[in-house]
Structures are given as structure tokens and as C-alpha cells.
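Supplementary Note 2. Why include the ligand at all?

Several targets in our set were suspected to adopt different conformations when bound, so apo predictions alone were not considered sufficient. For every target with a known small-molecule partner we therefore ran a joint prediction. The input for S-adenosylmethionine is given below.
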Amino acid sequence: MVTSPPYNLGIGKFKASGRYKGDNWFAKVASNAYPDSMPEADYQDWQRRFLELLHGIVRDGASVFYNHKIRHSKLEAISPMLWLPGPFKFRQEIIWKRPGSVAQNARMFIPCTERIYWLYKGDNFTFNNRPETKGLSDVWEIAPVKNTHPAPFPPELPRRCIEACSRRGDVVYDPFAGSGSTIIAAEIMNRNCLAMEIDPSFCDQAIIRWQRETKQAAVLEGTKKTYAQVSRESLRSKRSKGGNED
Ligand SMILES: C[S@@+](CC[C@H](N)C(=O)[O-])C[C@H]1O[C@@H](n2cnc3c(N)ncnc32)[C@H](O)[C@@H]1O
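The joint prediction is reproduced in C-alpha cell form.
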């Protein structure tokens, strides 16, 4: 699994500030973002429960790459290690060094890293011992990408995880798929991907992105209908009910 869950940052409430002020991209995409705002204790319990459920469904030897970051609230840092590794074993912490990050808090050094926690289930894990994998350090300097999702990771990030710890034809899972970066990475690496996303507009975005990258038409499973057909039908049905087309 490779995923980046919501960070509980209240992302929809952000206004661009500081070095992001002139860049209205973040304010624009964050204004229609998921709420991402719950009491911190509930959020951590949710993530603990999520890891327990995940542990129940993945096979022994499966790796989990969990992208998160150190957040800051009430003059203290909150590390994801407060709820990790759950029932998994903890293999390694990888630093994702990005050129900048949204500074939530004054009176501190500008955070410009995120973390990728590598966990695994059972007594061992797959690690492809090829030069392109074992030559990587635990600091990954990868430029962020911008799309219409407020918090995408660049496909190169899941691609490295997938390349290192799975084999051709394996299944990769991303339960918080957002704009579908993991789906794209799995495609590049010839893996099958199962993805979930709660927000229908991000699902649309992920499908459109997949179609653009693969030059194929997405088909709704169990039917022969393409995404374009399903979208047209859904639009027609909304119109006939007099509903909002958004
Ligand atoms: C940090 S973003 C993931 C971004 C993704 N890695 C990408 O590159 O676009 C987290 C995603 O989780 C989704 N999400 C939040 N709660 C969810 C839930 N209960 N089930 C599935 N997806 C959920 C949000 O809508 C959001 O798109």
C-alpha cells in the first residue's frame, strides 16, 4: 500500500499567506477541498483503527508506505509516530524533501519535509535488490506537482515505493487516492492498483488523469460503459431531475 491520508489540517480553511500569497493556486484548490478537520484525538483514533483494519486485509510480507508529516499545534509538534506503526512492524522513515511547504505557524523554521513511514506485516518483506532501488538514500528530493487537488504527492514518490517493495503484476492499494497519483505510478510500474476516494470530484480527476496518461478509455466494471458515457448519463439524469450539475 502507498497512501497519504488527510492530515487533519483544516485544509479547506486555509488562506494563502507568506510566500504563497502571490500564488492563488493553493487558495483556489483549497476552497473546495474536503473538510479535513476533526478533534485531534478523534483523528488519531481514526488512523489507528484504519491501520488495524488494513493489517487485517493485507497479506504477510506486504509493505505499507504511509506519507504524513510533523504538524504543529499549540506550540507543540505532533509526530505521526504517536499512532504508528499500529499492528505493523516499522522498517524505515524516509524524508521527502520538498522545496517548500505551507507554513502553518510563525516562530519556527520553515517546514520543508514530509515523511514516508515504511511499515510491513509479518516476518519479512519484498525488497528488490536492484541498483536503482538500493542506490536510493532515505532522503528523497522530489519536486511537488500541482493539479486541482490541494495535496497531491508527485507520482515519483509512490513509484519508488512500488518499485522497491512489489513485483510486476502485484496489487497496489491506495485507500486515500485523491487525484490518483498512486494509480499513475502503479500503471508506470505495471502493477494493478485498487484505489478508494471519498470525494466524487477527485474520483473524476483521477479517472481523467489516468485516461490522459494511458491514452485508454476507463470502463465501469460490470458494464461496457466508458467513463464518458457514464458522465453524460449522470449529467442528463441530474438535468431531468432539475438538480445542480456541479
Ligand atoms: C492527502 S489527500 C491524498 C492525495 C493523493 N495522494 C494525491 O496524490 O492526489 C487525502 C485524500 O483522502 C480523501 N479522503 C478523506 N477521507 C476519506 C475516506 N474516509 N475514505 C476515502 N478517502 C478519503 C480526501 O478526499 C483526499 O483526497
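Helices lie at 24-31, 40-57, 131-134, 156-165, 181-188, 200-214, 227-240. The two ends are 32 Å apart (CA to CA). Comparable summaries for the other entries are listed in the accompanying table.
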